[in-house]
Amino acid sequence: MKIYLVGFMGSGKSSLGKRLARKLEYAFTDIDQMVEETAGMPVIEIFEKMGADAFRKMEKEALLSTAGRSKLVVATGGGTPCHFDNMDFILDNGVAVYLKMSPVSLAHRLEYAQKARPLVQNRKGEELLAWVSEKLAERESFYSRAHCIIKGETVKPDQVISLVFGS
């Protein structure tokens, strides 16, 4: 079985994914990290030097590379499910879990995040909140197709395990 974690940037897909994989004794992979390794540069630099379209193509290839694997937890990028037919692929190849969060929670996390994120660079306060609200509204129709939806602010690995495995 594969578990794909989907949701907006800053929703905790990578940190939860690592803890979930450890608990299940599954492997863990992060789509953004896979792209960075392939490109030999951080996501922010890929956006700057190659553009969003090139990044999205690399992101799709990284996602497709998870197809033949099992016992895997995958942290997708925030935009991964929203491009090409990526959400269909995710739904067909594993269990999709949406870490749903409010725009206010996401904006707070993104404003104080350690990791540089190209799409939120130079946005702060109300401007960041407005941008997150707008983008989340655009992406919600993709995210909400997930097999399971869970509140991202307080999610624990055991809650995801219960949702996915029904135990």
Describe it for me?
This protein has 167 residues and is α/β, with parallel strands linked by helices. It has a single domain, classed as P-loop containing nucleotide triphosphate hydrolases (Rossmann fold, 3-Layer(aba) Sandwich). 52% of the residues lie in helices and 14% in strands. The protein has helices at residues 13-24, 31-39, 43-50, 52-64, 86-93, 103-111, 125-143, 157-165, and strands at 2-6, 27-30, 72-75, 95-100, 148-151. It has a 5-stranded parallel β-sheet, with helices on both faces. The radius of gyration is 15 Å and the shape is globular. The mean pLDDT is 95.
Map the helices and strands.
Blueprint: E1 2-6, H1 13-24, E2 27-30, H2 31-39, H3 43-50, H4 52-64, E3 72-75, H5 86-93, E4 95-100, H6 103-111, H7 125-143, E5 148-151, H8 157-165
Parallel strand pairs: 1-3, 1-4, 2-3, 4-5
Short note summarizing the structure:
The chain has 167 residues and is α/β, with parallel strands linked by helices.
Q: What would CATH call the class?
A: Alpha Beta
Strand order of the largest sheet: 2-3-1-4-5
Largest sheet properties: 5 strands, parallel
Sequence stretches where pLDDT stays below 50 over 5 or more residues: none
CATH architecture descriptor: 3-Layer(aba) Sandwich
The tally of beta strands, per DSSP, is 5
Strand percentage = 5-15%
- Can you tell me the CATH superfamily? P-loop containing nucleotide triphosphate hydrolases
Give helix % range: 40-55%
* pLDDT averaged residue by residue: 95
**What is the H-and-E element order?**
EHEHHHEHEHHEH
The domain tally reads 1
CATH topology descriptor: Rossmann fold
Outline type: globular
First and last CA, distance = 15 Å
User: What is the number of helical segments per DSSP (H or I, 4+ residues)?
Assistant: 8
Q: Which structural category fits the helices and strands?
A: alpha/beta
Q: Roughly how many Å is the radius of gyration?
A: 15 Å
